Amino acid sequence: MNTSDILTILPPWYFLVAAGIFGAMWGSFANVVIVRWPRELSVVRPASHCFSCKTPIKWFDNIPVLSYFILRGKCRHCGATFSFRYAGVELALGLLSVGVAQVTLLQSGSFEVGLASYFIWFGFVWSLVTIALIDMEHYLIPDAIVLPGIIVGILANTFILPMGWMESTIATVVSYAAIRLLFIDGYRLLTGRPGMGAGDAKLLAMFGAFLGYEGVLFALFAGALQGTIIGVVMVIARRRDGDLNEPVFEEELEEDEDYEPDERFGKARVPFGPFLSLGALEYVFIGDYLLHKYALAFGHFVYNIQNLF
Ligand SMILES: [Zn+2]
Question: What is the pTM of this model?
């Protein structure tokens, strides 16, 4: 028996349940990184503890998703309330992991290749969620995730994924250079302030390493479109509250810069990283489908135009 038979012997739900548990556990780790990394605390020590009474959380109270509901979101010792965000991140990464297993492992003829692509794509999705939540709170995209991510993306495309090292490498370099030139340095030259942050450029370079040109363009446009929609909703909501300030897309701070919360007082600060990450996530799961539909619609359009003459 060779290992590929595993996929035919065991039922699909077995792999999906395993992927869900694995994803939720990495969701737990994402929570630790999101809380501790921007505050320059170790992500390894100390073990998880209650933020209020500092009591270490026992392993049986630290089960992803379930413990939150068993304890009703409260500390067993002092009753302090935990944010639902913790369980939400674990649940989201559990479900995303199931989705990744479905489109990699269960579609693959070879167990080894399927499993390797599962780990690569789940790692990418994990980093998107973690980066989005850190950026939302701190206006910061950590180099510590993005730079190793670029290396993993290029290596994965060199040895395992079908795109190959050349497109991966060129898309990484070109994305970074193009964003710097057009949206950072060029934009600053024209308007006096950068239109995007250096963190956004590095994030798009990471998308290039994993997804190639098509994925970078998709994430950029899908992210900008959805960011604009949310921005417009925010303007309307703020007008209704009598506040006339427009939301501004916040340029990312460099990691050594200090965060000054009142730097643009009264403006709604909108980080761009979460929207770019959302765009990349959509590309991973439905990019092919959307691009295919778009190509079809465009084909019909061209056909109809031709029929007019
Ligand atoms: Zn407590």
Answer: 0.86
